[in-house]
Write a structure and sequence with these properties.
Length: 185
């Protein structure tokens, strides 16, 4: 199994890590924060400083859902008008009458511009079920562009509003530096 390395050190939590590694104790927040990386936001594990890949299947166990949006090129005008910068809030809008997919979920900017894209079709069914429960969700961009710029990639993260606030808060002092910031020795 290959992992991206920087200077010979591991940068990502292995995708085959124990499922319980990401699940916080009851009443606690997940042990992650978002850090800037290559113009985007990435989940960084507090205890190790390792990044967590957006496709890591264990994120859902911690109540965090991440995916790349699709279809931005078909909605280029809306995507160019919207504020899709990393950290900006987004809205998920189910489209049960969508002729291409009854589980389609459109992504709109917080001010209602959209759709700017859609939740990845492979994940839309599961996300639709979660949205249908009526649970409060917060959704933010973790990769995107600002108004007036062409968007050639949008990634979103959804979780409870409290988890989103926690993930966006500064990493506490004393934690290991994020792996992407460690010097190559």
């Amino acid at each position: 199994m290959a992992f991206r390395k920087q200077g010979g050190s591991l940068m990502y939590v292995p995708s085959d890590a124990l499922a319980g590694r990401f699940v916080p104790p009851p009443g606690r927040m997940p042990a992650f924060h978002l850090v800037e990386y290559a113009g985007a936001l990435r989940l960084c594990e507090d205890a190790t400083g390792l990044l967590v890949g957006p496709t890591n299947r264990h994120l859902a166990a911690a109540g965090m859902y991440v995916t790349n949006a699709r279809g931005e090129k078909y909605h280029a005008r809306a995507a160019r008008a919207a504020d899709l910068r990393p950290g900006q809030p987004l809205r998920l809008v189910p489209e049960p009458d969508n002729p291409h997919d009854p589980f389609a979920i459109a992504v709109h900017s917080a001010d209602g511009i959209g759709p700017v894209g859609y939740i990845n079709k492979q994940k839309a069914r599961a996300w639709s079920k979660l949205l249908a429960t009526g649970a409060k969700w917060g959704t933010i961009s973790i990769r995107g562009t600002g108004p007036g710029q062409a968007c050639n990639g949008l990634a979103v993260l959804s979780a409870s509003p409290a988890v989103i606030r926690h993930l966006l808060s500064p990493r506490p002092a004393g934690l290991p530096a994020p792996a992407l910031l460690r010097s190559a020795n």
